Amino acid sequence: MKDEFKNLPYRSGVGIVVLNKDNKVFVAKRIDNPKNFWQMPQGGVDKNEDYLSAAYRELEEETSIKSVELISELDGLITYDLPDHLLGIIWKGKYKGQTQKWYLMRFTGNEEEINIKTKHPEFLEWKWVELDQITDLVVKFKLELYKEVKDKVKKILN
User: Fold this and answer.
1) Cα–Cα distance list, 10 to 33, 42, 122 (Å)
2) Judging by beta carbons within 10 Å of its beta carbon (0-12, 13-18, 19+), is residue 143 exposed, middle or buried?
3) Domain CATH code at residue 14
4) Buried b / exposed e along 104-127 (16+ C-beta atoms within 10 A)
5) Which of 30, 81, 106, 130 has an alpha carbon within 20 to 30 A of 6's alpha carbon?
6) Number of domains in the chain
7) Which domain, by its residues, includes 139?
């Protein structure tokens, strides 16, 4: 990481692991990186907003999903750094990465509820995948974060 970015703060964020009735995980392909990289819903925490409220808001903003039950809050916070080529670009250059609180939720609705063509769309397409697949699909700089999330979810489900 270049010295000019080392002192930048981390952005406060949330991530949501959404499981369907078969314990498959919701992932979507980002518009701004249409290569074969997929991610789970995630986003920033607004000023004066708690993590859980942010998780529900981000989930609805990105996927239109409202029909979920909270299964568990994952222990701790997980941090990732942006790669050098994104520093100074993503989030208007204000942050060097993100520290996230993750939640595990069960989708209880009908799939017709899922709509990624939102007011400010972030995704091109979505699908359900096996939990073990999430680390095969994610962009490299989030790989360690996704490994940690996967391990924590496995402990909860077992």
Assistant:
1) 22, 15, 21
2) middle
3) 3.90.79.10
4) bbebeeeeeebebeeeeebbeebe
5) 30
6) 1
7) 3-157
Q: Residue 80 contacts by C-beta under 8 Å, 6 or more apart in sequence? A: 97, 98, 100, 141, 142, 144, 145
What's the confidence (pLDDT) of residue 105?
A: 98
SS3 129: strand
Tokens of 29: 């392909």
For the chain, the average pLDDT equals 94
- C-alpha angle with apex 54: 110 to 43, nearest 5 degrees? 85
Look-up of token digits 């496995």: 154
> Which of 4-8, 132-136, 144-148 bottoms out in mean pLDDT, i.e. has the lowest?
4-8
> Both tokens of residue 91?
């989030």
